[in-house]
Amino acid sequence: MSAPATRPEPTADECAAADAKATFDSLRPHLDTLVARYPQRAAALLPVLWHVQRARGWLTPRSIREIAEYVAVPQAQVEGVITFYTMFQDHPVGRDVVMVCKTLSCRLRGAEAVADALEDHFGVPMGGTTADGRYTFEAAECLGLCDMAPCMLVVDADRYGDLTPESAVKHLEDRS
Ligand code: FES
After folding, report:
1. Which atom of ligand 1 is nearest to the CA of 142?
2. Tens digits of per-residue pLDDT, 106-160?
3. Angle value at C-alpha 112, between 94 and 148, nearest 5 degrees
């Protein structure tokens, strides 16, 4: 498992492309139904973030400003939540984000070899995105799937366990 690639700041074009996928006003009807389930607007922050990320692919600076205003919390609080939860992305990512567990149980059962095989096969280090935009790979802390170690998770989709280097590559190739 190589060190995560240094991530450049998103460009203005990348931000604009993500924002153009869905205006905030177009998301508002569904967001209103989410907020209505909670006693306070701020309590809906996680599902609101998730919905906007699904719609735009990642959480752009504009998304963060709009969400902060929408749920009536400081922008710094939204940024803190995005930083804390690794499944939220504040930079452009591929169509699917693949989290490869690097914590002890998985490491003891071969997670490093799994990550190395993925990096070699897809030609991108942890933290990077394949040239075709299909996958972004992230080295992750415990995914809560220790009984399936070593494991990986395709965010918002599938989880794979008892991996070998070969099966990890095949699972992702079969998804393509
Ligand atoms: S240590 Fe890998 S899922 Fe828990």
Report:
1. 4
2. 999 999 999 999 999 999 999 999 999 999 999 999 999 999 999 999 998 899 9
3. 85
Q: What is the pLDDT of residue 119?
A: 97
Both tokens of 145, joined, read 């799937």
| Average pLDDT of the chain, as a whole number | 94
Residue from 101, 109, 148, 163 whose mutation best tests the ligand 1 pocket (most atoms within 8 A of CB)? 101
Q: What does the pLDDT read at residue 2?
A: 63
Q: Which domains does the chain have, with CATH numbers?
A: 12-84 (1.10.10), 96-175 (3.40.30.10)
Beta-bridge partners for 138? 99
The CB of 153 under 6 Å from ligand 1? The reply is: no
105, two tokens? 């149980």
Considering the entire predicted model, what is its pTM? Answer: 0.84
